Amino acid sequence: MKLPIKIFVFGSLGAALIALQWRGPTFSEESLKGVRVLVTGASTGIGEQVAYHYARMGAQIVITARREHVLKEVVKKCLELGAQKALYIVADMAEIDHADKVVEFAEEQLNGLDYMVLNHIGPSPYGMWDGDVDHIRWLMQVNFHSYVKMAVKALPVLEKTNGSIMVVSSLLGKMCSPFALPYIATKFALNGFFGSLQHELGMKRSNVTVTVCTLGLIDTESAMEKIKGYIDMPAYPAHEAAYQIIKAGALCQSEAFYPWYTYYVTLFRDWFPYYRDQVIRNAYNYQQY
Question: Which of 54, 115, 183, 263 is the catalytic position?
Answer without folding.
Answer: 183
